[in-house]
Design brief:
This protein is of the alpha+beta class and 287 residues long. The protein has seven helices and 15 strands. The chain has a domain of 156 residues. The longest helix is centred in the first third of the chain and has 41 residues. It starts with a helix and ends with a helix.
C-alpha cells in the first residue's frame, strides 16, 4: 500500500509530463504563424496599391436619364390607400355610398295598357293596400305596419337598414287587385322594410340512435332569424307614372309572350248576394 504523499507525487509527475508537449506544440505553431506572416508581408509589399476611379469619370459614365429617374418621386402605398379610402367614404344625403341601393336598369319606358290606366285611379284611392312580395321564390302577404320574421338569417344586414322588395305578384285593396304576369313592374310600386334585429328560437335537442346500438347522440340546434317591419307599401298614381315616362298603349300591341298587368274587380261574396235577395223579397212582401 502506497502512502498518500507517494501517490500525490506520481500524479504530479504525470501531469507535468503531459503538459510539456502541448506547450512545445503551441510555441511551434506561434513561431510558424509569425514566419508565414513575415514572408507574406514581404511578398505583397511589391504589388502596387489599387487606385479608386475618379469622380469625373463616374459622372461621365452615368447617363442623365438614369439620374433623373432615380430622383423622381415614387408614390407610397399609404398615400394611395388614403386617397382611395377618402374617395370611397363619401356620403350622399347623410348615407354612405356603399349603403345606397343600385339603380335599376331598364331598356325601355314603362308601358301601360288603356284598361290598366282607366282602373288604376280606383285602386290608388282605395287604401290600405296589401302586397304579395316574393323573396327567394317565396311569397309573403304584407301590409303596412306588419312584422315579418324571415325563415333564415339574412347576411350583411344590420338593425336599422332599409330594404326594398322589388318583386311582387299581387297588389290589391278591398275591391281591386293588380296582378302581374308573372311579376308586376317594380316602377309601379314601392315596398320598403326596416331591419329590426335578430331573433333566436329556443334550444332544441334531438336524440338520434341506430338500430342495435346503445349509444344515443344528442344534437343541439338554435337557429336565428331576421326580423323586419313593413314601413311603406305605396302604389304610384297614374300622374306619377306619366312623369316618370310611362306610355299608354293599346291592348293588342303588347306581345302575348311578355304579358301585361291587369286590374281585376272582386265579385261580391255569395252570402251577400243571398242576403240582398232576401231583403228585396221582404221589402216586396211588405208592399
Amino acid at each position: 500500500m502506497f502512502s498518500r504523499q507517494a501517490l500525490r507525487g506520481l500524479f504530479s509527475v504525470e501531469r507535468v509530463a503531459s503538459q510539456q508537449p502541448i506547450l512545445s506544440y503551441a510555441s511551434r505553431a506561434c513561431l510558424h504563424q509569425a514566419s508565414t506572416t513575415n514572408s507574406s508581408s514581404q511578398n505583397f509589399q511589391a504589388t502596387p496599391p489599387e487606385i479608386p476611379p475618379s469622380t469625373s469619370a463616374a459622372a461621365v459614365s452615368i447617363p442623365p436619364s438614369a439620374s433623373q429617374t432615380s430622383t423622381s418621386p415614387i408614390p407610397d402605398a399609404t398615400q394611395q390607400s388614403t386617397t382611395t379610402s377618402t374617395s370611397d367614404g363619401h356620403f350622399i344625403n347623410g348615407i354612405p355610398r356603399t349603403k345606397l341601393p343600385l339603380p335599376p336598369l331598364f331598356d325601355s319606358n314603362l308601358k301601360i295598357t288603356k284598361s290598366l290606366a282607366d282602373k288604376l285611379p280606383y285602386l290608388y284611392t282605395q287604401r290600405p293596400h296589401y302586397i304579395s312580395a316574393h323573396l327567394h321564390d317565396r311569397p309573403y302577404l304584407l301590409t303596412e305596419g306588419d312584422h315579418l320574421r324571415l325563415p333564415f338569417l339574412m347576411p350583411k344586414v344590420k338593425s336599422g337598414d332599409i330594404l326594398r322588395f322589388n318583386r311582387a305578384s299581387v297588389i290589391g285593396s278591398r275591391d281591386y287587385t293588380l296582378k302581374g304576369s308573372p311579376y308586376i313592374d317594380e316602377r309601379m310600386y314601392e315596398c320598403r322594410l326596416r331591419v329590426l334585429g335578430v331573433e333566436s328560437e329556443p334550444l332544441r335537442i334531438k336524440e338520434k340512435t341506430k338500430r342495435r346500438r346503445r349509444h344515443v347522440q344528442r344534437i343541439k340546434s338554435k337557429h336565428r332569424y331576421t326580423i323586419l317591419r313593413v314601413m311603406e307599401v305605396k302604389l304610384k298614381s297614374l300622374e306619377e307614372l306619366m312623369e316618370d315616362g310611362a306610355e299608354i298603349i293599346k291592348e293588342g300591341t303588347i306581345l302575348e309572350e311578355q304579358g301585361a298587368d291587369v286590374i281585376e274587380k272582386k265579385d261580391a261574396p255569395s252570402y251577400l248576394i243571398v242576403f240582398e235577395s232576401i231583403l228585396s223579397v221582404i221589402s216586396i212582401s211588405r208592399l
